[in-house]
Amino acid sequence: MRLSRAFLPTLKEVPAEAQIASHRLMLRAGLIRQTSAGIYAWLPAGLRVLRNIERIVREEQNAVGAQEVLMPTIQSAEPWRQSGRYDAYGPEMLRLRDRQDRELLYGPTNEEVITDIFGQSAKSYRELPQMLYQVQWKFRDELRPRFGVMRGREFLMKDAYSFDATYEAAVASYRRMMLAYLRTFQRLGVRAVPMVADTGPIGGNLSHEFLILAPTGESGVFYDAALEEQDWLAQDVDIEDDRSLETFFNQVTQSYAATDEMHDAQAWEKVPEAQRREGRGIEVGHIFYFGTKYTESMGVSVTGADGAPFHPQMGSYGIGVSRLVGAIIEASHDDAGVIWPDSVAPFRAAILNLKPGDADTDAICEQLHAADPEAFLYDDRSERAGVKFNDADLMGHPWQLIVGPRAAKEGKVEVKRRATNERFELSVAEALAKVQTA
Amino acid sequence: MRLSRAFLPTLKEVPAEAQIASHRLMLRAGLIRQTSAGIYAWLPAGLRVLRNIERIVREEQNAVGAQEVLMPTIQSAEPWRQSGRYDAYGPEMLRLRDRQDRELLYGPTNEEVITDIFGQSAKSYRELPQMLYQVQWKFRDELRPRFGVMRGREFLMKDAYSFDATYEAAVASYRRMMLAYLRTFQRLGVRAVPMVADTGPIGGNLSHEFLILAPTGESGVFYDAALEEQDWLAQDVDIEDDRSLETFFNQVTQSYAATDEMHDAQAWEKVPEAQRREGRGIEVGHIFYFGTKYTESMGVSVTGADGAPFHPQMGSYGIGVSRLVGAIIEASHDDAGVIWPDSVAPFRAAILNLKPGDADTDAICEQLHAADPEAFLYDDRSERAGVKFNDADLMGHPWQLIVGPRAAKEGKVEVKRRATNERFELSVAEALAKVQTA
Questions:
Q1: Which residues make beta-bridge pairs with B134?
Q2: Nearest to residue B378, comparing CAs of B411, B356, B358, B359?
Q3: Domain boundaries, chain B
Q4: So which domain of life are we looking at (chains A, B) (predicted)?
Q5: Up-side HSE of residue A383: CA atoms within 13 Å toward CB?
Q6: Neighbours of A410 (CB within 10 A)
Q7: A43 to chain B: which residues are within 8 Å by CB?
Q8: Helices (H), strands (E): how many in chain A?
Q9: CATH, domain range B21-337
């Protein structure tokens, strides 16, 4: 893509309303624009990041056997009355009435709707287990929306729901999701540590939050370093085998990890001192087993092998997709701008033509751009070199291909790695090989 | 995917509320479920169709240089007041108030928001032209929602917006979109004929609706057969060259085509009788040039080459993505069920194991399924053959791979083409070659 024709408006000024780095950088790098309080439009570069995150989330959901559906954003109040949450939810639920005066709401979560959809179709225990998920916009009417997409009102979430015949099967579903989550976050280029979360009246240990470590995180966190050293992608877990799932799950949960709310000083003392890590974290995921709470209250049952009806066991599993864009930036930026992990970067590389109009730089830049016009952003603008350097650093492309007139005469390109500031002077072919295969 | 584990609930009964074929078939084939009046959830098979349509729409938008953005569903009333449409829009606009009593609405279309976003960033004529699009859910509070997704309340649309410096440049943008639309619909496996539409006070001929021909269409249509014989994918149009665009556009618009609203009996007389086609059509797209209507009312201008500010010229371009699912079915079904065009089918083929548990049929089915578990739906259920035949016809997979015990003993598979009912007895390798390359 040629920057001269692209809609990638960067800002030089630091927006006054943005209090944290990710919010400032998302506005400055032209990823988002606010359209109302806590509501954002995604510009082309921001949308590319969002889509990259969605793609990885979907691949890992599919890999553990979840099937994608899509529920509407506008829901009827009816199932929420059945579950008892319509009155309980409070002012964060955006309630509305249509022209026929029917009570509707903009879904903040989807337990009620999915339980209803499942209940309409499922008749027998033979149709279990089912794991259904969606990636859909939700709305929570925050009193004080702030921090950009980190606490916006309209936000994109992946929400999954499991339906199982027995507690044991529900536990297996929970463990599969734990695996999917650890793999997802690792592929996104960030470390998210699973922390035991409050299970309320349900009890047990089947509730975990996933927190990305970042100094601006909203929660204090305490965890065993073992949890951030693991390579979850290399783990060989057989998701069809309950014993394999159990071994994996025990390995995760044996290491201490808790937010300040759930911190247990006595257990913390038992972690070897060299392994103790304290810091702050941003919640980007939550998995939760809640048994028959919704199937019971909404009257959903299927027939068991013995002919008797029973209420399926459920769990729900969320990932804050739009929030992740901000959280990744909080975890990966410097004073100059964003530092995108390769897997989510809007563009793999920027090509910086330091002297547009020069036959040598133009020729090399065109050659580089033609190699992958979709993944390479060609800065062909008639701007000073300094402007191009600043914009490329600000936008955070993993690689920069810098083409100046002197080196170009010798057929050379300067390749810069954004994260490390390493620089290499290479031929065009070598530069492409480095950027495309790294 | 194995049908025994999939969430693909088909219905035997014909749903009483569904008046037209596509609505009945979408419910029966397990594509959608209604969650409120005119609001639907998309089950896995339906979502696959929706995603296939989206993918083709995006590819053709990108091919003419449009860039994807994403605007929120919830908009502030403010820009709608500026444009004058907030009061004009009527009861189809879903209006709401948040907890701070701010006036919001669920966007039925996005001219105001995109003009605002564009205006915040664009400063100079050098940043033109721009073509921005999104694929996003919209809401129109229909008084009597019906016909399933064909006239639902929450619906998915692709909407694009062009910004140009001059009328001539705006015309070129319009022509590019005409090309993108004709290519999109052809790739979707349907014929959509562009018909001159009313331009209201703006005048000129730069407004076209695209109608898919189907007996249940809401409009009568009159058109020259030349328009459905053209292979738009084979046309060699240089989208950077205004003369090439003009030649293409003249070729489209020289043939008569109009809905009954715009029908001109005199012009119709001039179409050779053998070329005249009359029928009914479903509107699935609309392209529209409207000049400076929004840039003027919303005070958006950029600086021209002469230093003087001017209001950019705009056009907007919609495709009804969720409506297309219904429209394609209206155009392509029979008494037994849906007949999916290959490009949008949720699964390329169904594998029908007529005797699960038989060593020969099981082995062949597993072999077929392993060849492409994502694109092949394996009906491994313990159901009678008749149930499997009916469900496969109902779901409308382009191909069926029928594996019965007798043929299986000889390593043979019966391949059925859904659209033509052609049948072939083939070896496993031949069957795969036929289905995967056809």
A1: B159
A2: B356
A3: 21-337, 347-437
A4: Bacteria
A5: 16
A6: 9
A7: 69, 117
A8: 15, 23
A9: 3.30.930.10
ipTM of the complex, rounded to two decimals: 0.96
Q: Tally the residues of chain A.
A: 438
The span from the first CA to the last CA of chain A, in angstroms, equals 21
Amino acid at A200: G
Q: At what angle do helices A21-28 and A321-331 cross, to 10 degrees?
A: 100
On whether the CB atoms of residues A99 and B143 are closer than 8 A, the answer is: yes
Q: Which residues from chain B sit within 8 angstroms of residue A130, using beta carbons?
A: 7
Only one residue has tokens 């039925």, namely: B108
- Interface touch A74/B116, C-beta < 8 Å: no
Nearest to A172 by CA among A82, A237, A90: A237
- Rounded Cα distance, B70 and A149, in Å: 14
Q: What angle do CA B130, B132, B134 make, to 5 degrees?
A: 175
Q: What topology is assigned to A347-437 in CATH?
A: Rossmann fold (3.40.50)
Rounded (10°) angle between helices A44-63 and A321-331: 110
* CATH topology identical between A21-337 and A347-437: no
pLDDT tens sequence across A114-145: 999 999 999 999 999 999 999 999 999 999 99
From CA B332, how far away is CA A132, in angstroms rounded?
A: 29
CB contact under 8 A, B74 and A154: yes
The angle formed by the CA atoms of residues B120, B122 and B125, to the nearest 5 degrees, is 155
**How many C-beta atoms lie closer than 10 Å to residue A330's C-beta?**
23
Q: Which of B7, B69, B154 shows the shortest C-beta gap to A42? A: B69
- Alpha-carbon distance of B114 to B112, in angstroms, equals 6
pLDDT single digits (tens) A337-379: 999 999 999 999 999 999 999 999 999 999 999 999 999 999 9
CB B221 within 8 A of CB B257: yes
Question: What span, in angstroms and rounded, lies between the C-alpha atoms of B411 and B419?
Answer: 25
- At B211, give phi and psi (nearest 5°): -120, 130
In the three-class reduction of DSSP (H, G, I as helix; E, B as strand; rest coil), residue B289 is classed as strand
Tokens of B408: 């299986």
Yes or no, beta carbons of B7 and A121 under 8 Å apart:
yes
As a whole number of angstroms, the distance between CA A420 and CA A207 comes to 37
Contact B116 A42 (CB under 8 A): no
